[in-house]
């Protein structure tokens, strides 16, 4: 019987074993009835009925509802089933049937009945009369069950948080029942359940209680329910800030405690809609934090926490009062206003009543401080340097310092410039004075369109500015200084105003060019007219010109040519003003250097010419000739041909000057080379209208050493090759690649020192040339299955034809990028005659070559495979050579004059005996295959021939021996070994010394029982038999089991 806190009585005098599975105390809650399976057992017979039953407070009754039954299987016979319920007031039958099926299976049994109760207990009697089926004998199984009434525990609706005492616990229960609250064993609260089933129990706690754990039960009609689970509620409060604390805004992070998953909102005490930080959910640690999102003004503050858990109504924590210490705010002067260096800064958002003060900062420098007055108002006098400055203020109270408040920028203007000096020299004017270091000085002159440069005051406070082209007359002037506002603007001081008196100066800095028609220039007063006269003023030497930007320039009215110290008189005029003096300017023009043209080719004595001044004396010199030469210029042209010849391909220099009006010009020098005559190149290969491939070596004659040769496509007017420098005279070659399949007309261009000679045009056709067959060679051999190889055009496809055939033997063989092709093919033995062609696709068109010349070769058997002896094997003078080949072929083995042959069998094997007469040592067997007269290349098999034959004397023939075996025999000086007769890798005796007296040794491992043979071989020291002896095999002997007490061989 499985139970969960059952209160189920059994009658001690029941005739059958009674069991009630899943029997529970029934709850007073009408929705919490119990389901039981009541079982009866007796003399190996059993029966069960399943019921649903419980108490109902509303109807003051106990009801029972049967659902199904089953009994021990005995062929489906029918028994009798009866269930009766009773209370202190009455009894009732729930079910009574005479046809209860006995087959071991569950059957539905739907019956219901109830009895009135006094809420103490109810009894159930279950009777099953079992039909045994044996002469209609019956067995009665019956049992009684009692169920006590117990009210259900009250339903507690816990709030995991509380703010203050008393704590109100909401719950529901049986109307009229008494709900009791316990802390441990201590009753701390109670209240009766209302008619609607609701109940609120107050619990008083002291102020130091932060967590309360409690449980509950209810009592109804002197029956107690079970105790509920333990519930825990926590005091929810704000732990930071503390009451009456002074806090910086940045330090205000609200902290508190509450139950996990509680939602917390911090609000103003006076306005619950004034949110100070959003909503946070309490973590498992039960400690929550919330950064303040509101920026309050400095002063007192009062907040509380709004506490909400799940769907429960929210409530509020106790109030926390504290003082906010915020960053001060600047209220005056206005943002970006212009201020003198010393001014008063005003602001608010101070914290009054805490001996608070403010400090004003320019970057990291404190520039002023003051006390906070009533209502948080403050004033501070500051002194700043000129410029655009941003001030910020910090507040100090209760030992704490705020962050800086919002900065405010001000434009601090420099002082007015008063100490000014003005100096006018000729056309220039210089202003100077003192100012604020780093400031820019601005000078404005009324009636002067020129914008003066703006000088920067030096570190020592000095500044100076020079200007030219100042207007004539009396000019009102204003000077101020300004500093940058760091925003592409300026902060200006108050101006200083005064007057300038200026007159028109003389021209100056006059100069002239030494051109034959000189150009005069100088400096003057902008806007004035400069006039240039010949001496005496009767005529102008050059057109008058207006001064622009302080400068003027005028070209002489006519060409002067070479001259010496000729004067020009100059003065400037402006409106009614003129300069005081005529400025005299002397002009000297030396003759210019004559020019030299490229010499006119005339063999090895070319003609030189150039330009000069008419009738000038021209002086000529050559670097290879010390003698000076002269020529006279006629109409401005000079010519000269030296009487002595020059050598070709050597660089010379000619130097020329001219003399006019007692002045000699500078010299002109030019390098020149007398060149040999160009040779016309001749193309000798390919021949006219010949067919060529896509890569071609153009050959020719008539080359000149050091010249460059290049081949051009005359049809498409483009280069077919790069320029190639010739290393010798005479024959030349140029490689051209990637020619298209078409007709070409080409010419060769030979270039030397900017001279070009062309060959005659040559025409040829670019076609797909026949491929080459490199394997087989004419008259050569290839095995039945072999690779054919050759050369062709990369990317082309090769076909191989048997001469006389009507279709290709091999085709679609691709030529690789390296120009090679190959293909594996199989042929019968005999003579074969082949040829090949190739095709290449260009621009979607297939181009085919001609056939190659025929190549005749022999298809022969492949060299046979030699299985034994293996390479390097030691053999005797009688040796069996065997291997594999093609059935029907004849294999021939040869060593010197000794040879033997055998036909390859149908299973592809062959073997033969060979008796050798050579001396011992290293030899190579030559093995070939042949079919008719066609013979393969020879396969070489290196072997070691041993001609010396040692002996095995012990064990003797037919001798019966036991392990371990002793071996002995005769031989020559060396080292020997005994091996298995069928496995040379199985060594019975290794590295046994051999002397003139023979050899002897004991087997290293036991031999198998039964008939045995062994083999022996040794190395040889000296003699003409080679380095190893022949293998010798022992006579047969018998290995027997060891017999105790037997000794010897």
Number of helices: 0
* CATH hierarchy class name of the largest domain: Mainly Beta
Mean pLDDT: 88
Count of strand segments? 100
CATH domain fold name of the largest domain? Immunoglobulin-like
Instruction: Classify the secondary structure makeup into a structural class.
Output: mainly beta
Note the overall shape: flat
Radius of gyration: 66 Å
Largest sheet: 7 strands, mixed
Q: Classify the beta-strand content into a percent band.
A: over 45%
Which segments are poorly predicted (pLDDT under 50) over 5 or more consecutive residues? 1-32
Description:
With 1049 residues, the chain is an all-beta fold. It folds into 11 domains: 3-150, Immunoglobulin-like, CATH 2.60.40; 155-233, Immunoglobulins (Immunoglobulin-like, Sandwich), CATH 2.60.40.10; 237-325, Immunoglobulins (Immunoglobulin-like, Sandwich); 330-412, Immunoglobulins (Immunoglobulin-like, Sandwich), CATH 2.60.40.10; 420-502, Immunoglobulins (Immunoglobulin-like, Sandwich), CATH 2.60.40.10; 508-589, Immunoglobulin-like; 607-673; 682-766, Immunoglobulins (Immunoglobulin-like); and more. Helix content is 0%, strand content 56%. Strands 64, 66, 67, 68, 70, 71 and 72 form a 7-stranded mixed sheet that branches. Strands 2, 5, 9, 10, 12 and 13 form a 6-stranded mixed sheet that branches. The protein is flat, with a radius of gyration of 66 Å. The protein starts with a strand and ends in a 9-residue tail after the last strand.
